[in-house]
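quick one, two chains, predict together pls
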Amino acid sequence: MSASELKGIAHDLRFDIVKMIGEAGSGHPGGSLSCADIMTALYFGGVLKHDPQNPKTADRDRFILAKGHAAPALYAALAHAGYFPVDELMTLRKLGSRLQGHPDSSLVPGVEVSTGSLGQGLSISCGLAAGLKINNDDHAVIALLGDGECQEGQVWEAAMFAAHNKLDNLIAIVDLNGLQIDGCTSDVCDLGDICAKFEAFGWDVSEVDGHDIEAVIGVLNDAKASRNGKPHAVIAHTIKGKGVSYMENQASWHGKAPNADELAQALEELA
Amino acid sequence: MVKLADETLAQQKKATRAAYGVTLVQLADEGVPIVAVDADLSGSTTTKKFADAKPEYAARHFNAGIAEQNMVDVAAGLALAGNVAFTGSFAVFGTGRAYDQIRNTVCYNNLDVKIAPSHAGISVGPDGGSHQMLEDITIMRGLPNMRVLVPADYAAAAAAIRLAATTPGPFYVRMGRASVPCVYADGVELELGRSYVLREGSDVTIVACGVEVEQAMKAAVELEAQGISAEVIDAFSVKPLDAETIVASVSKTGCVVTAEEHSIVGGLGSAVAELLASRHPAPIEFVGMKDCFGKSGSYEELSVFYGLDSIAIDDAVKTVIARK
């Protein structure tokens, strides 16, 4: 897929993310928009081996959305990839919908595990990566974490475990948008040098502009190919709310839906 | 009728936790895709026996270090990869420290993760209140998809591990540190959702679980000498609870005492009370920890101090019969 086609898909994902959250009347636009390009790279840029027609195929990489509140980004990617009809996106968060506020693996094809409680996704990914190794299965496990999520101590329990068990089939992408509900991560509880932290825990670390889809694809493919006994952290520098002018870099758009006027403006910007 | 220990075996004492590692080895030998994840307590829980049995089992045993939250979610990931995953640690940390992981990952996803820590209850003894888990049945029982087994002895613990391994979905198996007398015959097979009438009686039903089964049996003998006929039921499967057996017994005896080495808030007693309130209201008395923490002491001393011994059960029986 060409760079412009990938950009087009990321654009479509953003349009649907904002529209479905507007339609739902609640949800998390900021962190969904910040990872839309990463989701595009994963599902449309050839990074993840997956089959929308056969979601449970043994011949697949595993993707775990540790930052489960970015469910709209995952749903948009899965729908556009063909896991379920795109129209269904507008049922987000409604009674009877498969599209729960946070991803539910029992309902949605392509969702490997239900997430939503922050800090758990990397541990689950460690278990999955260790399980694949036991089975002599070469597929990769890729987890997407929020930067605020890295305040959870469990993330670092998992980081230690991954290095100790040489889980080089594991990639943790950190969507480093610098914001969390209460404000800047540096004001709430500073993460410090996150690259140095992962390095100190024994991980290979790369940094990338999380909105440069080609670059994200490159760094993820390199990490996937590298089986050097070390797990891989990809620190993706992103902008929270990316693509909607009034949401960009605003912590207040972490977890609220646009009203009708705001939605109209956002969709116009993304049209 | 399920097979009970003969007189020779009944003289023997073994810890429920001692059944853990060896049963995992048996299950793996039989082809069950067992993996175990512990948290620096693999010697105490005995999951180390699984790791030590064969090199290929060592590769299926993970030590998370002192990191119980990671332990549970690593087990969840291993289950997602097609394994039957058992966790370790002590009950206080293996449930309480990792409650959110058990709730939101293990149970919400209905995964093949079996939470099977040891050192539950006051029978931990000298380690004291910080290590005596008394509300694990309460918090595990409250979780959708979770099944709760409380084995009374070594053979029941082996049966519980086997049942958990061969039945899909989350389980909680509550095991203890202390050596306790054998109630069941070796190799006994126990069923999910079943309680077992260990002794028939007509004046009162005693529903017990775990180490309190032994105390209940002792109490029944003491009561018989005083002319009171007690029926003793081992509520091995606390969730799902065996409604038919318990209701049938209480319909016959007209009153019930519950006994557990656990808080009376939310545990077996509460489960039995919930059942009887809707199906067969009857006087009920609760033997258990009275909404307090434990303290250091020997198991035997603590059992008397907190009113968990057979004498306390005798007293509760007399109280409940008077309320009939």
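The CA atoms of residues 163 and 191 of chain B lie 7 Å apart.
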